[in-house]
Amino acid sequence: MGDTVRIGIIGTGFARTTQIPAFLACEGARVVAIASGHRENAARVAQTFNIPHVADDWRELVARDDLDLVSIVTPPATHMEMALAALDAGKAVLCEKPMAMNADETRRMVERAERTGAFALIDHELRFLNGRRRMRELVQSGEIGRVTHIKIFFRNATRARPDRPWNWWSDAKQGGGVLGAIGSHAVDSVRWLLGTEVEEVCCSLATHIKERRDAQTGAMRPVTSDDEALLLLRLAKTDLVEDATGLISLSVVEAGRQDHFTEIFGTRGALRIEERGELWRAEPSGDRWEMVPVEPTDLAPGLLDNGWSRGFTAFAREIVKALREGRRSVEGAATFADGHRVQLVLDAARRAHESGCWTSVNGS
After folding, report:
1. Domain spans of the chain?
2. Closest to 322 measured CA to CA, from 20, 82, 120
3. For 127-296+343-359, CATH number?
4. Is the preceding omega at residue 21 within 30 degrees of 0, hence cis?
5. In this structure, what are the phi and psi dihedrals at residue 226, rounded to the nearest 5 degrees?
6. CA distance 8 to 5
7. How far apart are CA 225 and CA 172, in angstroms?
8. Which residues form the Gfo/Idh/MocA-like oxidoreductase N-terminal domain (predicted)?
9. What is the three-class DSSP state of 216?
10. For position 1, what pLDDT does the model report?
11. Closest among 72, 22, 83 to 319, alpha carbons compared
12. Is there a contact between 262 and 189 (Cβ–Cβ < 8 Å)?
C-alpha cells in the first residue's frame, strides 16, 4: 500500500459526526468516496468534507479500485452483506457494532475474513481511550486482586422525547435498540478488560416509548426495538476472575445528567472509568475514589468531546498507520472474531429476555 490510505465510507450518520473528521485528522489518510441510500445525504456530507465521489449504491463504492479501506457505518441489518462484498473485493474492512443481526451472520463474516486473510475490525473505539488501556493493565497485572464483579452503567435521554421521529433505530428488524448499540460495547468491555467470557446471562428488555411518527407519512408507527436493557452476567473462571458476576444497565430514555461508567471490583480494591477516560481507584475498605493519573486521549478537531470521539480519534490513527505499514491487524483492536463472541452474548440475552430465565452463552 502507498503512503496514502484511501477510504470509502458507507453511511452518513456516525460517519459524518465522528469517523470522517477523525480520519481526516490522520497523516496519510484520504476519504475518497461516500455512499448512502439517500444520495442527497451523501452529497451533503461530501460537500462538507470535500469528498470527491458520491454514490447512492454501496455496491458501486465497494467496487471502486481506488479504495484501500471500506468503513461500514450503516444499520446492523446491512452489515453482513456489505462486509462480505468488501472482503471479496479485496478491501480492508472496518465494521460498526453490533457486528450483524445474529451469530449466524457474524460467523459467516469471521469465516470470510479468515479465508481472505483480510484486515477486518469492529469499531469498539472505547478500547483506545488511554484510561481504559490503563485500567486493563491494572486488572491484568493483578493490581486489584481477583475480580469479583463488574458494573457498567449507561444513561442518557437521547430518545426520551416521544416526538422524535421513527427511524431505523426504532425497528428491531433493522437492528435498532440499545442492547445492540450500547450493549455490544458493554459486552466487549467485559471481555477485553477482564480477559474472560460471559458464560450465562439474564436479561430484561423494555420499550418505553411504543410509537413514533413517521417523518415521511406522518403516520404513527410501532417501535419494536428496546430503549432499555438490564443484564446480569456470570463470568467464566480464569486466574484473575473467580465466581465473578456482572451488571449492565443501559437506557436512552432516562432524564437527568448523561452518565456512562464502568466499575471493576476485586479482592484488593476497585477501579472506575468514566465517559472520557477518567480513571479512579478505591482501596478494599475505602469509602472514596482517588484519581489515577492518565494522559488524556487526543481529540480530533471538530468533534464533540466525549469518549466515543476521543476513542475513535486514537483508533483511526492506528488503523491508518497499520494499513500504511502493510499490516493486517491493529494491536488491541476488536477483530471479527471478537465481534462474533459479543454477538453470541447478545443473542443469549435476547433468548433470556424471551424465556425469563438464565441462559447459557452457547456456540463457537
Report:
1. 5-126+310-333, 127-296+343-359
2. 120
3. 3.30.360.10
4. no
5. -90, 145
6. 10
7. 5
8. 5-120
9. coil
10. 63
11. 22
12. yes
DSSP letter for each residue of 116-185: HT--EEE--GGGGSHHHHHHHHHHHTTTT-SEEEEEEEEE--TT--TTSPB-GGG-GGGT-SHHHHTHHH
Please, what's the b/e burial string for 28-65 (b: 16 or more CB within 10 A of its CB; e: otherwise)?
ebbbbbbbbeeeebbbbbbeebebebbbeebeebbebe
Which tens digits make up the pLDDT trace of 306-336? 999 999 999 999 999 999 999 999 999 999 9
Which residues are paired to 246 by β-bridges? 150, 233
Q: How far apart are CA 112 and CA 11, in angstroms?
A: 22
Closest residue by Cα to residue 28 from 329, 310, 289, 322: 322
**In contact, 102 and 349? CB cutoff 8 Å:** no
Per-residue confidence (pLDDT) for residue 94, from 0 to 100: 98
Give yes or no for a contact between 320 and 27, defined as CB atoms under 8 angstroms apart: yes
Q: What is the pLDDT of residues 61-100, one digit of tens each?
A: 999 999 999 999 999 999 999 999 999 999 999 999 999 9
Instruction: Let me know: does 341 contact 197? Beta carbons within 8 Å.
Output: yes
C-alpha cell at position 243: 465466581
Q: What was the pLDDT predicted at 42?
A: 96
Architecture of domain 5-126+310-333: 3-Layer(aba) Sandwich (3.40)
**Please, are residues 172 and 229 in contact by the beta-carbon 8 Å criterion?**
no
How far is Cα 252 from Cα 258, in angstroms, rounded to an integer? 9
Segments of the chain with pLDDT less than 70:
1, 364
Q: Reading across the β-sheet that carries 120-122, which strands appear in turn? A: 53-55, 29-35, 5-10, 69-72, 92-95, 120-122, 334-335
Burial of 356 (0-12, 13-18, 19+ CB in 10 A): exposed
Rg (alpha carbons) of the chain, rounded to whole number: 20
Beta strand pairing status for 259-266 and 211-213? unpaired
